[in-house]
Amino acid sequence: MLEILKNAHIEREVLIQDRTAKEWREIFNSQDFDQEYYYEGNDLGANYSKEKTVFKVWAPIAKEVLLNLFSRGSDEEDDSQHLRTIQMSLSKKGVWIAEVKGDLHGTYYTYTVNANGKVNETGDIYAKACGVNGHRSMVVDLEKTNPEGWEEDKHVLYPLEETQIWEIHIGDFSNDPSSGVKASYRGKYLGFTEDDTTLNNDKIHPTCLNYLKNLAITHVQILPSFDYGSIDESNDNNKFNWGYDPANYNVPEGSYSTDPFKGEIRINEYKQMIAALHKAGISVVMDVVYNHTYSVDSHFNHTVPYYYYRQWEDGSYCDGSACENDTASDRKMFQKYMIESVLYWIKEYHIDGFRFDLMGLHDTETMNLIREAVDNLDFGKDIILYGEPWSATDTNLKEGLIPAKKDAILHLKDRISIFNDDTRDAIKGPFNELEEPGFVNGGENLEEKIERAVLGLIDKKLVDQPRAPYQLINYVSAHDNSTLWDKLVDSVKKNRDYLTKYKDLLAMNKLAAAIVQFSKGIPFMQAGEEAGRTKLGEDNSFCSSRELNQLDWKRMYKFEDLIDYYKGLIKVRKSFKGFHDISENCTSTITILTDLPKKVVAYKIKGSYENSAWQEAIVIFNASKEEIKIQLDECEWKVLVDEKNTSSQGIKSIKEYALVQPISAYVVGR
Ligand code: CA
Question: How far is CA 593 from CA 193, 307, 434, 457, 621, in A?
Fold first, then answer.
């Protein structure tokens, strides 16, 4: 232990000395540091009013902090001028303050921080606006960024049981020229705002928002849309990235705006995107990546060296994110930062939900505090929160804290859900062995896993199981790994022909979708899964071309029958509460049917619900290559789903037995 930590009082003189990473780790992890330097206020950043702006930055180990003001976001722009530099003064808890008179809207700024033997010029980690590429922050009058009618824009919220999530990258949505979206809007926030687009303007086949309006999904989950570092915003060079490399957490990414140089424009256009989705009745989930940043050469490290990143005992950075810079949710100022950031996106941008990347790198305490803070908002309980309950490799959480991983499911509060990779892999095969099949594509001995999926359970090796199925996000495709279609080609055909619309693969695709819809949990899909989306076998397209990544709207309509099938499944799920009641108070009962042939899983579900067309249903998943016959109770049943059709009113009536085609789902109700 460091000598200074034995005194229970950390003098400022101690903090302004140059130290090793290992020493800083000990200091920052100590309770004494928290006690003396944790800042409770929520006014860090540039506090704007028309009369003055008050700048506040938390930099407890700095010897000196200067505030620099500029006319533009970078030196390369016309009339870029350094306006002035102001000495900031140290206030309580390590907060430096400067007050500047006048209306500073549109003024760019940086801090020059002298700490731990280095002088760094840095953007503000609390910035709400920034210049091109996010190097300089910008003072912003947020009211000026509101699009017309923004006051009327309200959160669109759905009960968890109705939730259907569709995951999309902003560029992928409209980059395809055949999307019918205006060229200057393609791949941008504004690509979401045209609501009458059609395939090559044929006036027949809806695309983009016009398509989404009728897809029956409730939520879009948008891949990273905060400012990230991997794309040069100053040059529209056709580069593509998913954006899992945060630079400014509280500012929209510039490359999706029509003008990344003017800080207020990306904010305005982001809000236009949200308003357009809301107007179409769609909730917006933001994909947040608080677990690491673009690099350690960040505003965080330039402001308080080492504080915001988690370290091993020797002071080296943890790499649980596989990006060599895990952030430290277990340090109080970053924990608070995460909570405030989430609340900011909800309040300022009307975001309706959050998906936490590598949530397993955060601790359950932080996740639960976020849930609590969100719940405290008027409508907060309907804001959906979920995340990936894993990390890439090990990290080094502070002792006593629990990582928010799958086995900690009961340590997570209600309504923090996790991606259910057990069900995913059982249905279509392991994500990392491309040729290895799952239940629908020829895998053996997976019946029990599918039964667990149906019941809303996870891996049986885990002692703690979900307290209710709403803790599970069920899916068979996401941006990571192969698309569902590519996985089917690789595991069944093994010929790398991703373009042919194979009939047997189509049947497997439909069966996979039916298992997701008729298992307990919240259904989720990658955009285009409903239309045979392919990335030509590429299973990690994070920086592949725009063309490979984008939704191919022409191909989408070659799979129109599949799209209709997905829509139909969603409607059938909605038509009977037994299917979509995922609460802990669920009153329906599921009985798994026994004595079935191999590769067949079936269940009966009963529930008594008022005003429900159905009180009982039987769901059959036949993954075998044989037609099967299932005996039914003697009465009339309506067929809701078969190998081709879906209908929430019933396709036809049957009695005595159900004949289920090879590789298909079959659902009857009465
Ligand atoms: Ca950026």
Answer: 48, 56, 31, 17, 11
User: Residue 81, Cβ neighbours under 10 Å: how many?
Assistant: 11
Element (H, E) at 561: helix 560-575
> Ligand 1 center to residue 227 CA distance, Å?
4
DSSP state letters, 408-465: GGGGSPTTEEEE-HHHHHHHH--TT-TT---TTTT-SS-HHHHHHHHHT---TT-S--
Query: Could you give the count of Cα atoms lying within 13 Å of 468 in the half-sphere of its Cβ?
Result: 16
Pairing, β 283-288 against β 219-222: parallel
Positive or negative, the Cα torsion across 463, 468, 474, 479? negative
3-state secondary structure (DSSP) of residue 319: coil
> Over 70: is that where the pLDDT of 24 sits?
yes
Q: How far is the CA of 408 from the centre of ligand 1 (A)?
A: 34
> DSSP letter string over 389-404?
---SS---PPTT--B-
What pLDDT, on the 0 to 100 scale, is given for residue 2? 78
Q: Amino acid identity of 601?
A: V
For the chain, the average pLDDT equals 97
Q: Percentage of the chain with pLDDT > 90? A: 96
**Each residue's pLDDT tens digit, 56-97:** 999 999 999 999 999 999 999 999 999 999 999 999 999 999
Distance (Å) of CA 461 to CA 129, 177, 422, 455: 47, 48, 11, 16
Which residues are the active-site residues? Answer: 357, 388
Give yes or no for a contact between 355 and 387, defined as CB atoms under 8 angstroms apart: yes
Task: In whole angstroms, give the CA distance from residue 315 to residue 295.
Answer: 17
CA of 270 to the centre of ligand 1 (A): 14
User: 3-state DSSP call for residue 374?
Assistant: helix
Token digits for 592?
A: 């798994």
In angstroms, the Cα distances linking 514 to 77, 495, 530, 640 are 54, 26, 12, 12
- Going by C-beta distance under 8 Å and a sequence separation of 6 or more, which residues neighbour residue 265? 257, 258, 259
Beta carbons within 8 Å of 656's beta carbon, 6+ residues apart = 631, 632, 634
Separation of alpha carbons 223 and 281, rounded Å: 19
DSSP state letters, 494-529: -S---SS--HHHHHHHHHHHHHHHTSSSEEEEETTG
Compute and round to an integer the Cα radius of gyration of the chain: 26
Q: How far is the CA of 48 from the centre of ligand 1 (A)?
A: 23
| Tens digit of each residue's pLDDT (9 = 90 or more) over 649-661 | 999 999 999 999 9
Which run of H or of E encompasses 99? Answer: strand 95-101
- The CB-based long-range contact list for 33-40 (8 Å cut-off, 24+ gap) reads 34/332, 36/9, 36/10, 36/93, 37/10, 37/93, 37/94, 38/93, 38/332, 38/333, 39/92, 39/93, 39/94, 39/95, 39/333
Q: What is the pLDDT of residues 182-195, one digit of tens each?
A: 999 999 999 999 99
Residue 560, judged by CB atoms within 10 A of its CB (0-12, 13-18, 19+), counts as exposed
Q: How far apart are CA 298 and CA 122, in angstroms?
A: 8
